[in-house]
Amino acid sequence: MDSISTEFLMKRLRERLNAEKVKLWLPPFTTETKEKGVVPQELIKKYAEELKLTEDIIANGLEELRLHAIAKLEEKEKFQNQGVATLRIRLSGPSPSERMSRKPEPLECNLEITGQDLMALVGDKYGVSPSTLKLITGGKIVSQVDSLSSQGIKNGSDVMALMISSSDIKVSEREAELAEVEKTRWAAEMLSSRADDDEDFDIQIADQNGHPLILPSSEKKALTFAMTLHEKGRAALKSKKVSIALPLFLEADAEFNKCRATILNSVDNYAILCLDIVWCYLLLKNLEQLPDAEARLTTSETCFKRCYGEKMERLAAIKGGTGMEQVLFMRLYLLQGIVAFHQGAIANAHNFLRRAEFVLTLLHVDDNKLQEIMLMGFTEREARLGLRAKNGNVQQAVAYIVEKKKEEEEVNKKAKKEWRQRVRGKKLGKTAGGEPVNVEYYDTLLDMDFPSGAAAEALRLANNDINQAIEILNTRPELLHLPPIEKHKVEITDAMIEQVCSLGFTAQMARKCLQQFKGDLQRAVDELLKHNGVFPMSSGSFSPMSDSSHSSVSSAYSSSDSEMSASDDLSAGRLNPKEKEELQSLVSDISTDTNDHLDLTLSEEREILVTYMSLIENSPA
User: Fold this and answer.
1) Which CATH number applies to 83-163?
2) Where is the sequence biased in composition, kind Low complexity (predicted)?
3) Residue 159: what are its φ and ψ, rounded to 5°?
C-alpha cells in the first residue's frame, strides 16, 4: 500500500475503534508488561469485511495502533514526571539518502531549549547538518533564538524538518541553498525600504486592474516585503524547489500578518499565499500540518468571497469575466477535498473533489484553439488566459487579449511617468510649507526658459504658487545664477553636435546648449538662434565652480543633486553597487505580469484529483 492508502486505513481503523470504545492499550490486547496480548479473530474479521481489506492488513494495522497508543501514554507520563517532552519529527524535502525514514519519529527534549538547540538535535538524529534544516510547526518557522515553549510547542507537537536541497548533493551545496533563502529575505527587506521616489527601483503595489494603490509608507513597506517574498517563493515553486518555496511563503505569511486586517481583507494576495502554502504541504506529503492547512483554506475561501463576491459578481464587474480566477477556486476545492479526505470526512471530500472536477472541465483549453491564437502572434500564456477568460470563444479571447495588453501598456506608461516625476521631485526639495515642489509647475518654468535652479527655488519660496514664483524670478535676478538642480545624464553624441554645428554654431556652444536641454536638439537650436549663437552662462548652464563653492550655495541643492559623491549617495539612501546587484538578482525572476499566478497548465492538479477520486471510489462506506 502507498503512503496515502496506509494513512487512510489507519484513519478509518482508528475511527472504528473509537466508535466502539476499543482500548488497545488495555487487556486483552496488551499484557501487564505492555507486550502484545490477544486480539480476537472475530474483531479482525469484522474490520476486514467493513473496510474491504485482508485480515493480515487489519491485524498489522491494529498492532501499529496499539504500539502508538502505548508510546503516547509513556510519553505523557514521562513529561508529567520528568518534564521531558516528546516531539514528532517528520523529515520533508529532498534527503541525502532515500533510505532515510519519512515517517514521524519521536524526539525527546526539554521545551525550554531554543529552536537552534532543537535544530542541532534533529540534525544529530538524521545525520545531517543543522544549517541545512528549516523547522516548521503550526504553519510557522521555528525561531532559532526563542524557547520552544514560548513558540507554542508542546509535548506531542508535530514538527516538519524541511531539508533545504534540490537533489542528492553535498552539505556545502545544501547550505548554499539555505543561504539563498536568507539572502532573498535580506534583499526583500532592503527592497521594501526603498521610497516612492527611489532612483533605482520603481516599487508599486497595484490593485486588480494594475492601478497603483496609495498606502501609508509603513504599510507599503510591510506589503512590499511580504509580496516580494511571496513572489520569490512562487518562482522557486515553478522551478520545483518546494523546499525553498515553503520557507519563503511562511516568511511572507509572517510579514502579511503585521498588516492591518482591513488591508488583508481587501486584496486577494493573502488568500493566494495561503493556497500556495497548503499546496507545498501537499507536495511534501506532510499530513501533520493538516490543522494549519484547514485553517488556511478557510481563510482563502472567506477572502475570495469578500474580494470577488459570493458568485464572483464583483470580479466580473472589475475584469469583465471570471474564467481566469476559476483556477484559484479549482485548487481551493481540490485542497479542501484532500484535507477532508485525510480527516476521514469522505462525503465532504467527495463533494469538494467533484466541484474541483467540474471547474477543471470549465478551465480546459482546446489545443487547436490555443494554436489558432498563437499563430496570430500571441504567446501561449496570453492564449491560455484569454480562452479561459472568455470560456473558449476564440474571437472574444483575442479581443480580450488585445484590450488587456493595451490597458497594461497604458497603466505601465502612467506608472513610469509618475515614478520619473517623483524621482525628479525629490531633487527639487520642498516648499516653505513642507510640500514637495510641483514638478509640472517646475517644467512650465523651464519651458519659459528660466534656469532649473532658479525655477525650483522660486517654487519653494512661493509654496508652489506659479504666478508668485514667476514674480519672484522677475524681481530677484540673483536666483538666475543658482546651480542647476537636475544635472543631465543624457549622452551628448558627436552626431548631435554635428547637427547643431551644421547650422553655423560652434561646437563649444552646441555642446553646452545640448547639455542644458538634455539632448533636445530643437530647444538647443532655438536657444542659440535666440541669442545669436552665444549660449548665455546665466541661463542655467554649468558654471565652472569648484566642488566646494557648488555645495555651499544651499544645502537644499547639494542634497538633491543627482551627481552626488559616494558619501552623499549613502546618506541620501542611494544603493551602492553591491546592494544594487543584490536587488537586481532579487527581482530578476519576479514576474511583472499581474495574472502570472493564474497561468497554470493544471496537469499536476489533474493527476492529484484522479488519485484521490480513485481512493474515495475504492474506499468502504
Assistant:
1) 3.10.20.90
2) 540-572
3) -125, 130
